[in-house]
Amino acid sequence: MPDQVPEVFAVFQCAICQGNDPVWTSSNRSDHAFGSPGRLMCTGCATAFKVRNGFLDLHPGDPEPIPPIQHLMQFPPIVAVYEALWRPIGYFIASKHSFPKDVDRIASLIQRKHGLILDLACGPGTFTRRIARLAPESIVIGFDLSAQMLERAVRLTRKERLRNVYYIRGSALSLPFKAGSFDAVTCCGALQLFRDQDQAVSEIARVLKMQGDFVCQTTLGPRKPPLWIRMADRMLKFGYFYLDDLKERLYRFNFDLQAEERSNINYIFRAAKSG
Ligand SMILES: C[S@@+](CC[C@H](N)C(=O)[O-])C[C@H]1O[C@@H](n2cnc3c(N)ncnc32)[C@H](O)[C@@H]1O
Ligand SMILES: [Zn+2]
To answer: Which ligand is nearest to the CA of 16?
Structure first.
């Protein structure tokens, strides 16, 4: 017999058929809906999406093409050292700032702390967990394409005994959520990596509520990058923005820039959805 659909699925919209009336079945007897295997069935296209290893996989089937740098994000040794080494070192080189301190600062840029928050491209859940702690009244969805990253995020979140977090696998380019679902969307270290950045920003705008916060940390590039950066980018496709292009894109998708901060090539901003 189908179980009562957990609250978090109220914002579900199937990325395949756009149906938004799922049926949830689970063997779960723990205090978290994803605590044991379960499945969410879309009544529109009859696709069954499974909860496995603590996250709901809304992106089964053919993997979407990803740039080389993203393949690294699925490579277990990189996933294992990502939060403790890779990210803080990369962040310090880019900004000359401490990563752990900035995680706190960036998380506290969120103005709407009582609703539903999406941490897009959450990786091992560094920001997801910090936000969940900072906003215990909220529900935080950590969302990523890499199953390996999500498995690590689930492990770390359980260790910290956070109950207001749900992890979902899917693509930033077709978010499986209804329009106007979220009070805030965060996206750190990832916007510059997406294959189609217009599509990603348009999806963020779609799923945000009016006046909802978009909090982002990304990387800027020089107008005339040195040869070695151009070569490295050509191989790895790590990507970066030109500041005026990024601002133009935010404007085009009806975001009002409300706070910004640049340190070296690191750029942090908060924008509100305005139209
Ligand atoms: C550099 S990591 C950032 C992780 C985390 N937000 C942080 O700040 O440490 C980039 C993440 O983007 C995810 N990613 C890449 N392409 C994606 C896509 N199309 N949809 C969702 N996540 C994606 C990768 O799997 C990876 O975990
Ligand atoms: Zn469907």
So the answer is: 2
The domains of the chain, with CATH numbers, are: 7-52 (no CATH), 68-273 (3.40.50.150)
pLDDT tens per residue across all 275 residues of the chain = 445 557 889 999 999 999 999 999 887 767 788 988 899 999 999 999 999 899 999 998 767 777 777 788 888 999 999 999 999 999 999 999 999 999 999 999 999 888 999 999 999 999 999 999 999 999 999 999 999 999 999 999 999 999 999 999 999 999 999 999 999 999 999 999 898 999 999 999 999 999 999 999 999 987 677 777 777 766 666 678 889 999 999 999 999 999 999 999 999 999 999 97
Ligand 1, atom 1, residue with closest C-alpha: 189
Query: How far, in Å, is the centroid of ligand 1 from the Cα of 1?
Result: 36
Query: Rounded CA gap, 118 and 274, in Å?
Result: 18
SS3 159: helix
Q: What is the largest CA-CA distance in the chain?
A: 61
Amino acid at 215: V
Ligand 1 binding pocket includes 193 (Cβ within 6 Å) = yes
What's the one-letter identity of residue 16?
I
Helices (H) and strands (E) in the chain, counts: 9, 11
